[in-house]
Structure formats: C-alpha cells, structure tokens
Specification:
This protein is an alpha+beta fold and 217 residues long. It has a domain of 151 residues. The protein contains 3 helices and 10 strands, in the order E-E-E-E-H-H-E-E-E-E-H-E-E. Strands 1, 2, 3, 4, 5, 6, 9 and 10 form an 8-stranded mixed beta sheet that branches. A two-stranded antiparallel ribbon has the order 7-8. Strand 9 and strand 10 form a beta hairpin. The longest helix has 19 residues. The termini are far apart.
Length: 217
C-alpha cells in the first residue's frame, strides 16, 4: 500500500505581502514556488517516565528572513549566497532576540520522507559564553546541522515508494539538496525534542533581486 508521502510535492507561491518596515538584506525577497516537506512526528520506541513529573511544553520557534512576510522562512540558497555580506543572525527576523531561556540543550531531528530507516539526530546547545542563545544563533546552528543531515542522507538508499523525495546532487533527476531547502522553524514533538519545519523550492528560483541596492550573486 502506498505511503501518504508518495505523491509529488505540491508547489505554491510565497505570500507577497511585505511589512512596511522592510529590513531585508534584499530589496525584494524572491517569490518562490515552494512545497512542504511532509514528516512523520518522531516518538520514542519506549516511553520513559521523567523523575520530576511532566516537563514544561516547548514553544514553537519560527524563522523568517528579515523584512519578509510571515511564514516566508529562511531559504538556504539566499543565506549562503556568496554576494551577501551579512551574518545569519542579522538576516533572521528578530535574530538578536533571546529564546528558550532556562534550557541547556534540546534534541533536533528530521524525518525526511523515504528515509524512515535513518535515525538521525543532533544535540543543540542553547547557551553561549555570553548567555542564552538568540533566535539567529539557533538558526545558524540548525542550518549547520542541516548540512550535516544532507551530507549523510546523500549516501543512504531512499524507499522506492518515496523516490520523489530523494536527497542527492543530481538536479536533473530532481534530487533535493541544501540549495532547495527553506527552513521555517522548529516544532516540539516529544519532551525536549524538536523537528524542523521545512519546505523545498527549485534552486534556479532562489535568486537574489539585485535591484535597489540588494546584495546577491
């Protein structure tokens, strides 16, 4: 029986409403055709009891390009553009806002469709030498982990029923790489575990608008 994720990605356009206080490093954040990456929510195989009772629920964390409309996310191709001179923290809306205070670390997971057999996760530290982590610093850590994730899965075998979600470097065969990824945020799935909310776009559409002083390649 086919899995729920066996159909092709459904692409739709980015919302076009730009806030009046547009602080984006780009004059016009590109309108990208995008599709959600459907993930199953991770659950532990064995349910463990916490010593001190239920943990305080984790908040959902959102990431948006500075000056872009809500739910625009962070297109990795824009953040890693060779022509952009800004730090990731400055490119994230509310990038210097302190978040997740009182926590030392969380677990970060991705369950990319077609790779359910790969148990991939990383620990994310939420404190720095100067204090609690900021939204921009967290985004930078997650992006680094995403690069590690894609490098790992490029050598793994995809479920034949989910070949449309193959991770790799062959763009002609519609394989997905980091240049396709849009990071929208993190959502809690179990105790101190987060999963990434991801979308994909076509790489040739993730181009910077160079007009009006915008930076780009």
């Amino acid at each position: 029986m086919a899995t729920p994720f066996s159909t092709s990605p459904f692409f739709y356009d980015t919302p076009q409403t730009i806030p009046s206080d547009n602080r984006s490093p780009y004059a016009r954040p590109p309108i990208l055709k995008r599709a959600a990456v459907p993930q199953k929510s991770w659950r532990p195989q064995v349910k463990r009891k916490t010593k001190n009772g239920p943990l305080t629920p984790l908040p959902r964390i959102t990431f948006d390009l500075a000056g872009a409309p809500p739910s625009y996310g962070l297109p990795i191709a824009l953040l890693t553009s060779q022509g952009c001179q800004q730090s990731v923290q400055d490119m994230v809306q509310g990038g210097r806002e302190v978040i997740l205070q009182g926590l030392d670390k969380v677990v970060f997971r991705i369950l990319w469709p077609g790779y359910d057999h790969v148990d991939w996760h990383r620990h994310v530290r939420l404190t720095t030498s100067t204090g609690p982590i900021t939204r921009g610093q967290l985004a930078e850590q997650i992006i680094d982990h995403l690069f590690s994730f894609f490098h790992k899965l490029a050598s793994e075998t995809v479920d034949p029923n989910e070949k449309v979600w193959t991770i790799g470097h062959n763009t002609r065969a519609r394989q997905w790489g980091m240049e396709n990824v849009i990071l929208l945020g993190l959502y809690p799935v179990h105790e101190r575990t987060y999963q990434a909310e991801l979308q994909v776009c076509l790489p040739d559409e993730a181009q910077v608008d160079n007009r009006d002083g915008a930076r780009g390649s």
